[in-house]
Amino acid sequence: MTTRRTxxxxxxxxxxxxxxxxxxxxxxxxxxxxxxxxxxxxxxRAGVGKSALYRRWPSKDEMIGAVVAEFSVARAVDPDTxxxxxxxxxxxxxxxxxxxxxxxxxxxxxxxxxxxxxxxxAAFSREAIGGPRxxxxxxxxxxxxxxxxxxxxxxxxxxxxxGAGIIYWRLIVxxxxxxxxxLDQVTDLVVRALSx
Length: 196
Hints:
By secondary structure, this protein is an all-alpha fold. It is 72% helix and 0% strand. The protein has 9 helices and no strands.
């Protein structure tokens, strides 16, 4: 059996370098925001040359998009607890942890602002972050319909918006802490609304 060698001059992407860059991107976004983030600052923070960044992503926007998408989608969950309430509560827990993450809570408002000014970033956010996260959470409501917990004609798209919208509005728009029992209250409200 012959061993294939990497051709001379080909870039080998080392996972530890990619991880260092990813952490640097998140740190820079949290500290300076989307508009002021620079490839130079990310490279310096990661302890690599700028060429290491460009071997992975062709532009700053694509680098930020890929890092934020990976961070965000990895935090979506598809619990299967056997009940709508259990699945929804676990999903809302994961959503809460995502948007209140110490770094990401400082990144999210800037990302939303950038998406409102930049149609390409808005499309990317919908397709690479929102799309995969919603595909994962859709199963919660599909299973609830199959179990007969909610009506078969439930608008699953709208159902997905309810709990997430309530939490987002309170934490991000209003800036009000959740408080003890808040996620249980939201869960119960959504379950009652969908079961009615």
